[in-house]
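Hey, resending since the last one bounced:
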Amino acid sequence: MSPPIGRPSSAFVAASWAALCIGSVVYLLGLWNAQMQLNEKGYYLTLLAYGLFSAISLQKSVRDRTEGIPVSGLYYNLCWFSVALVLFLLTVGLWNAKLADSEKGFYAMAFLLALFGAVAVQKNVRDLAATGGITPMLRRRERPDAPPPSA
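The structure tokens again:
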């Protein structure tokens, strides 16, 4: 039996979106203004994209398992591995970067804020859809043989 799903407050939804946007934008602005080679900027940009995807994927697979939706063990473990890997790669990259310690901290905190925001936004979207607060973009039909809704 899945636990009851509560509707997230408007303040939490706004804070989640703010965390995602602020973390991502600040991280990207830091990259834009950084005095590093283009390949280094690409490395950190790729880490942000991979990190956001892996964090959302982990949140979804954990939530699916909690709600009794089947998730393969391979995918579930791959999600955990991906989040750990992206955090490890960011740590190694920042450890070896020729940046001031304050810049390294800036990138680490903006990255973690963006990951938190992505997970929280995904949770809110799912909770709002489950409580009828928003309409999912792709609706499931009531019956598999039911005709598609008319336009």
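DSSP finds four helices and no strands in the chain.

Sorry for the duplicate.
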